Amino acid sequence: MKALLDITSLTMRFRGLVAVSNFNLALKKNELVGLIGPNGAGKTTIFNMLTGVYRPTEGQIHLNGHPLNDLKPHDITRLGMARTFQNIRLFKDLSVLDNVRLGHHIHFTYGLFSTALQTQHLHQEELETQAHSLELLKIFDLDTYQDLKAKNLPYGAQRKLEILRALATKPKILLLDEPAAGLNRKETEELMHTIQKLRKEFDLTILLIEHDMKLVMGICERILVLDHGETIAQGTPKEIQSSPIVIKAYLGEPQA
Q1: Would you say the pTM of this structure is higher than 0.90?
Q2: Which of 19, 28, 61, 199 lies 20 to 30 Å from 205 when distance is taken between CA atoms?
Q3: Are 69 and 185 in the same domain?
């Protein structure tokens, strides 16, 4: 099967510092892949290159055959790549519903003329956006909080809202940057089931960064391990857990 996301020899240098070196990944449709490693290993830098925040020093990124290296973040989003962030980025003074509605705007077809004249086309598109946003909120049972300001949601619910806003862009690939950060054990277990559900219902390909090894090992089909910007191992969860180089660099020696 042809790769949906094809990453070849991706390298990012900041002056003399090599943050990511020769990173390669072929991500097939509907895969769920984990990216793990110590803090500072280069994981979020890879996400920033994939989404146009950073322009790679070397290497190529192709999404469904389209080169991404020179595209702006909003153009990459339109092509079907969405992300969440390690530090939650919501419009905190807007309502829960409006945060999700804003995710749809990347695909709006009406222009300035329709906005000025408040045309039927504009109203129809807004109604459809409202209905779809409410359906997304129901996934995490957040529809009852639709009028609440995002900043007033509990931390775990804010994490969920950010995922829903990314889904509103109608992605083919969803990049999740530490989605379980700050969640308790019960919330993390619920998140595991939800990620699997989202992949199936929305036909998503998912690449996630996560430090919670129970989540990573529990849902990912394969895992890549980074250390100091280099890929030191990749394989199935079972292979990664038993890899001496990964145990030494990241997982730590098993307890006696």
Answers
A1: no
A2: 19
A3: yes
